[in-house]
Amino acid sequence: MSLNGLIMIATDTERELEFQAKIDRGEVIEPKDWMPERYRKQLIRMMSQHAHSEVVGMLPEGNWITRAPSLARKAILLAKVQDEGGHGLYIYSAAETLGIDRGEMIDQLHTGKAKYSSIFNYPTLNWADIGAIGWLVDGAAIVNQTALAKCSYGPYSRAMIRICKEENFHHKQGYQMLAYMMRGTKEQQEMAQDSMNRFWWPALMMFGPSDTDSPNSAELMRWKVKLYSNDDLRQRFIDRTVPQAEAIGLVIPDPKLKFNETTRHYEHGEIDWQEFKNVVSGNGPCNRERLRARVKADADGKWVRDAAEAYAKKHMN
Amino acid sequence: MNTNLEKNNALFEYLLRLGDTSLILGHRIAEWCGHAPILEEDIALTNISLDHIGQARLLLDYAGKIEGKGRNEDTLAYHRDARQFRNLLMAEQPNGDFGDTMVRQFLVSVYNFPLYSALSKSADAELAAIAAKSVKEVAYHVRHSSDWLIRLGDGTTESHEKVQQSINDLLIYVDDFFNGDEVDALLVGQNIAPDLNAIRALWNETVQLTMVKAGLVIPQVNSAMRTGSRKGNHTEYLGYILAEMQFLPRAYPDAEWL
Fold it and tell me: Which of A41, A130, A137, B171 is 20 to 30 A from A4, comparing alpha carbons?
């Protein structure tokens, strides 16, 4: 190795130490700051996965817009889905500050290289699922995202602050919708409970594998990309959600769930990690449909994007 | 004859025509959700759909009040059959490809803009207020859809051919916009609704101008123009839209959903 090469290595190590010191001091990393390649890659992975989740998430919810049972509910759902699309756009833009463009991220989604939240691989089978997604899925997302709002990467942290405001609104609307159904007819109550039964465990899985089995955790916590462990966040979600369920008469589908008076936390039954692994690896109930829908939309829309580009080129001056 | 009753009946019909067009077009656009050519369009289309649903709510709610039989926006939307719907035939046409959807939106929005502008000065204060609110949204719909028409018309050879075909296909539903009847005549007479001839002239002007910019042509329509929406004579598509839209309130008639 040449002398110059050695000096480069030394400089990179110094930079890395300075980078870590900066993070330890609680400073925020901005796009033009030096950052380790691995930090950049991890953030691209997380942020693109997050953006993809917002966009794929439009599918299970969009599934019920045309069947919303009142015009008020239809308007609420349309506004929510529009918000999710906006979040996707916002996070893609934030991720682009790391030197990757949206097209490349979308290609990674379509080829299966990038993931999206597994929760959207579950089907929306009844109208109450729209409430459950707002309350449980957005509720879990808020717990995650409130933590991410304090993360070390400036553009991501700022995006989370803004997005959390809208997600909080969705969370309340979802809960209100289920509360309303639980005061309704027997059929409506059954719908709501059925939805709870199907979405509870997948919502808990949204926090990712247990700390003992989370490959990226240690590094991400050192870089303050992640501030709390998966299990801590999951616990926060459970503690917050169980009393809400009880207040409207929904039963949590976990016979082992109980409040521990000493720890002041709920204890829960074992999560089916095999199911989690299956869904993550592409074998959930809707993985194929979701991805195919996205790939098809992209392919069907190519002539439109090409036309817009051709038009822009012709009229550049 | 009770002229006030006549006026109310006409106004009720008229509000259904406006409200149903918004509702059914909003429904169609919502079908795009998550399937648009680019994320920005997913957002724009859900937004336009939301505008239409919002307009439908105001118009149908007011229609229910004018009718005075206790029906509200939801009873009107969810508990009428296809023959009682008064939306323009254009609104219920399938989405087709993105060009078809944009042409449909453009043709309706260019009709809605002068219509709602005129209605914002209606002698009926409530209708005027609804129209004044809606026309701001319609202005955006015109801009958005005409921008796309121009981009597609003046984009690639493929997009030009496709969007020209969309125009050729959808033009047969345009006469239906302007095919006024005794309801229109009565409300025009009372300064509640505008004269459709004036709206048609403005519609023609904007469409011609946009076509020139887009390098597209208005073809001679050889097949018969389809009309009939004012009397509830629809295309076959509406029944399927309603089957989907009305399913829950019909299946659970005792349930309330807010």
Answer: A41
Provide the CATH number for the domain around residue B83.
Answer: 1.20.1260.10
* Count of domains observed in chain B: 1
Tokens encoding A151: 């993360």
- Nearest beta carbon to residue B43 from set A73, A85, A298: A85
Answer yes or no: do A70 and B249 touch at CB < 8 A: yes
CB contacts of A82 in chain B (<8 Å) are 43, 46-47, 50
| Per-residue pLDDT reduced to its tens digit, A93-144 | 999 999 999 999 999 999 999 999 999 999 999 999 999 999 999 999 999 9
Give A201→chain B minimum CA distance, Å: 26
Among chain B residues, the shortest Cα distance to A294 is held by: B35
Is some CB atom of chain B closer than 8 A to the CB atom of A304? yes
In a domain, B134, yes or no: yes
pLDDT band at residue A27 under the 50/70/90 scheme: very high
Low-confidence ranges of chain B (pLDDT < 70): 1-2, 222
Provide the 3-class DSSP secondary structure of residue A194: helix
Asked if A178 is an interface residue toward chain B (Cβ–Cβ < 8 A), one would say no
Give a yes or no: residue B256 inside a domain: no
Instruction: Name the minimum distance, in Å, from the CA of B38 to any CA of chain A.
Output: 7
Q: Output the six-digit token pair for B94.
A: 């399938």
Of A67, A81, A187, the CB nearest to B33: A81
**What is the count of residue pairs from A and B with beta carbons less than 8 Å apart?**
148
Indicate if the pLDDT at residue A1 is higher than 60: no
Q: pLDDT above 70 covers what percent of chain A?
A: 97
User: For the segment B141-152, what is each residue's pLDDT rounded down to a tens digit?
Assistant: 999 999 999 999
Residue of A nearest to B33 (CA): A62
Residue A102 confidence (pLDDT)? 97
Q: What is d(CA B226, CA B246) in angstroms, rounded to the nearest whole number?
A: 26
Q: What is the reported pTM?
A: 0.95
Per the structure, the complete domain to which residue B103 belongs is given by: 3-251
Which pLDDT score, from 0 to 100, does residue A5 have? 65
| In chain B, residues 10-39 whose CB comes closer than 8 Å to chain A | 23, 27, 30-31, 33-39
- The verdict on residue B43 lying in a domain is yes
**Rounded Cα gap, residues A121 and A124, in angstroms:** 10
Question: In this complex, do B37 and A302 lie within 8 Å of one another by their Cβ atoms?
Answer: yes
Is A75 within 8 Å of B57 when comparing Cβ atoms?
A: yes
